[in-house]
Amino acid sequence: MTATETTPAHLATEDRFVPIQTRSERPTSFDPADFGTPTGREVNWRLSDLKRLAPLLVDEETETGAEPAIEYGLAELEAAGLLVESTGHDAAPRGEVFRPEDVVSAIAWKRCQNALHIRLPEGQVQEQPVIARLHGTGADRHGNAHIVVEAMPGSVGTIVLHHSGSARYAQNLEIIVREGARLTLVSVQDWQDDAVHASAHQAVVGDGAYLKHMVVSFGGGVVRVNPSMRLAGHRAEGEMFGLSFSDSGQHIESQVFMFHEGVETRGDVLYKGALQGEGARSVWIGDVLIGQDATGTDSYEKNQNLVLTDGARADSIPNLEIKTGDIAGAGHASATGRFDDEQLFYLQSRGIEEEEARRLVVIGFLMEIVQKIGVPEIEERLAEAIEEELRRGAGLAPASKAGA
Amino acid sequence: MSVLDIKDLRVSIETEQGSKEILRGVDLTINSDEIHAIMGPNGSGKSTLAYTLAGHPRYTVDGGSITLDGEDVLEMSVDERARAGLFLAMQYPVEIPGVTVSNFLRTAKTAISGEAPRVREWIGDVRGAMEKLRMDPSFGERNVNEGFSGGEKKRHEILQMELLRPRFAVLDETDSGLDVDALRIVSEGVNRIKGETGLGVLLITHYTRILRYIQPDHVHVFVNGRIAEQGGRELADRLEEEGYDRYLKAGV
Ligand SMILES: Nc1ncnc2c1ncn2[C@@H]1O[C@H](COP(=O)(O)OP(=O)(O)OP(=O)(O)O)[C@@H](O)[C@H]1O
Ligand SMILES: [Mg+2]
């Protein structure tokens, strides 16, 4: 695809008003009041759709009332014996690694009494992926949740959080991958168009452990999923993959943070997004920090966006900060392109109609991520959703210039 | 028997400095089962002619006509031209991330013949064609042209030609970047397809070497956006000896 580096010039000037700080030094607090109300100039809010996220900034009781905002379909977890009795605010491991970094996350912490605790028992190999189904019961219902996913030493498994329906839903996800464990965690945002969702994921990966973390967002009005991963252990490995498809009026955001803390850790970040239609937005901010003790680090991050029509906009901001001189390798890349005329021409010159050619190019672009999911049900649902999006976009005029 | 007829074709491209005329009145008639070689200096407009035949959106046709058995090719979209039987083996084939060769070939075949090929037969056809071109079957699982060497890309173009069975093929420097063995294999492929289907070929090349394998019926010298001279095989040999100076000095 035609690659053009995205240079967010308007942001460069704004930077002067924001004190420069290392990503790991971002303030944290369990008290929402400490954050105040964001103005939209803050480093972690400036590209967000604050207007539509506003209902999640309201610090109110959300666990009373007969009808919860989210129905938790946990039958598969229960059947697999992965559900642990819900934990209160002070019950370990809740809060072992999680520190709210923004007001929405602090409210979710405060207003969720009983965290959902999912645990892969020590040494257990869970062959089948296990899916938790979170279903929103109404676009006007406010929900707050704290979820802990804990992979005990030596365990192996795949956990999926699948979100559907509609709600105003703030969520914290605390992920602990203990030594030698291998966890795949997939969060799928398959919401209806009027859902408002903000989720903060914080993961810590221990000695010799591995976490594959995936964010798949294609449904919802505003979807903000900000994952961070600390490769804390010796030889910890982490992969962060993301796939999004933003339609007209959708705002899909991910602020991704990979922190190499331990010695000889390996990290790979790859997010891909497709956008189409008037007002379709995607925001990706990717920070990689290689700490001063993280010798022998191997790190790469990349974000690629494919703008399918005019009127859609992708912001892509990669940052790489290195505090040790002794690393194995580090790199980053960001590219936002439109449909590549040469690719379309090549396919059409073999008799393939334009619409079909577009389909091949878009699916080809996203396939790299789809193939990494490894959960057949989710891969099928996603393939179906991509086809749906493409049908919807078929009537729209193609993008006329790169970057949008 | 088919005829591809190009008459007084004038083509320009939009550049930052404005419109630039590249083809300045090209006349060329190609019949089925004929091989026409086009030779000419760099930048003379050979690829422009090839791309214009295929309908690349970058080129603006300012005048003249292209017809295929009387049908107006210029009226057709890129994919319609391919379905009408035109094929362009490109000088620089394009990489398509995430689309495998086998998926691409099947999709193209389905588009060209209007129905999905029967699976068993198709798999056999693809395997057979790859074998003849000495392409490893593993190419089927690779993404289209991604990471292919220059010569592999060219073989992949001929593979498509073999499977899609066009009426006319334009080979734009298909011989460049091929090693001696590959040159022979690819040439054999072209001759084989021509023998089987009566393919008409427009062969763009800088070297007479390929003309030892693929015997041209006509040789055209392309200079400065038009055909400056026509002849038989012997013209190609003379060009190799003398170069294009004669034509350039004459200011054709
Ligand atoms: N985008 C462009 N801007 C300016 N000039 C262009 C552009 N595209 C093509 N041209 C010019 O058009 C002319 C014809 O190019 P073309 O590729 O058809 O030549 P060719 O005969 O195939 O050359 P070669 O033997 O090197 O392949 C060249 O002078 C080329 O520089
Ligand atoms: Mg050329």
Architecture overview:
The complex is a heterodimer of chains A (404) and B (252). Chain A is α/β, with parallel strands linked by helices and 404 residues long. Chain A has one domain (23-392). Helices cover 17% and strands 42% of the residues of chain A. Chain A is built from seven helices and 16 strands. Chain A has helices spanning 9-14, 50-53, 75-79, 103-111, 341-348, 354-373, 376-393, and strands at 70-73, 83-87, 115-120, 130-151, 156-177, 182-190, 196-205, 210-219, 222-231, 237-246, 251-260, 266-275, 281-290, 298-307, 313-322, 329-338. Chain A has a 16-stranded mixed beta sheet that branches. In chain A, helix 5 (341-348) packs across helix 6 (354-373) and helix 6 (354-373) runs antiparallel to helix 7. The radius of gyration of chain A is 20 Å and the shape is globular. By secondary structure, chain B is an alpha/beta fold. Chain B has a single domain (3-250), classed as P-loop containing nucleotide triphosphate hydrolases (Rossmann fold, 3-Layer(aba) Sandwich), CATH 3.40.50. Chain B is 38% helix and 28% strand. Chain B has nine helices and ten strands. Chain B has a six-stranded mixed beta sheet, sandwiched between helices. A four-stranded antiparallel beta sheet of chain B has the order 2-1-4-5. In chain B, helix 5 runs parallel beside helix 6 (180-197). The longest helix of chain B has 18 residues, at 180-197. Chain B is globular and about 55 Å long. The chains are: A alpha/beta (404), B alpha/beta (252). At the A-B interface, helix 5 and helix 6 of A face helix 2 and helix 3 of B. Adenosine-5'-triphosphate is lined by residues 13, 15, 20, 22, 40, 42-48 of chain B.
